[in-house]
Amino acid sequence: MSLRKIWTALRGAVNEGTEAIVDSQSIRILDQELREAKSELKSCDENLTKIMAKRKLAENKVNSLQVDIESYSNHAIAASEKGDEGLAIECAERVAELETQLQTEQGLLEGFLNSERSLKSNIAKAKTNVRRMEQQIDQIKATESVQKAQVAVSTRHMGANSKVKTALDSMERIKSKQQQRAAELEAAEELAADESGSSLEAKLKAAGIQPGGQVSGSDKLAQLLASREKA
């Protein structure tokens, strides 16, 4: 085998080992990614809060400038109507300054509003994705638990069947040994009877030759009639 083929085989083995590790830790990795996503969303919410606060300050500044512009405009008109041109011009100059500030503040306010809208939209999308990811992780965990339970049940069922078969085999062996032992005991009893002569005596009794054997009905009746006549 060439060195190139050996290297390819080793690299394939490493890749398979890496994939096996990743697969075994897949749920843990998903949980970690979800936690990181939630942490990022929390930071986004904090940034959005800061921008919204700055937008509110800018709105207040714009509103205040608009009030001042309207007020000094009225003052300029009133002073002009009273013939105080110097005061009227001074008020008009103040209005011009305020309008310049207003343009600046309105530009800042528009920027804060755009940032706020953009962040809200992006955060909403990210939260939707996180919720979807969380749902998928829960489903994966539930499926994993169910499949592990099914594997355990299947394994135990197979093991139980094997144990039952083993128990039945053992029971049959025990029965066979008991039958063998009973036959051996019976043979031993027969052998002992032959050796003691009790077997022969049993045969003589059965034939009616030796007392204690089986008596027929007719013989017994004859004995009863004979004993009655003697009486």
Shape: rod-shaped
Rg over C-alpha atoms, rounded to the nearest angstrom:
56 Å
Biggest sheet record: none
Note the gap between the termini.
Answer: 120 Å
Written as H for each helix and E for each strand, in order along the chain, the element string is HHHHH
| Class by alpha and beta content | mainly alpha
Count the strands? 0
- Bin the helical content: over 70%
Helical stretch count? 5
Q: How would you sum up this structure, described in words?
A:
- The longest helix is centred in the middle third of the chain and has 112 residues, at 85-196.
- The protein has helices spanning 3-24, 26-81, 85-196, 198-207, 217-230.
- 3% of the residues are buried.
- By secondary structure, the chain is mostly helical.
- Helix 2 runs antiparallel to helix 3 (85-196).
- It contains 5 helices and no strands.
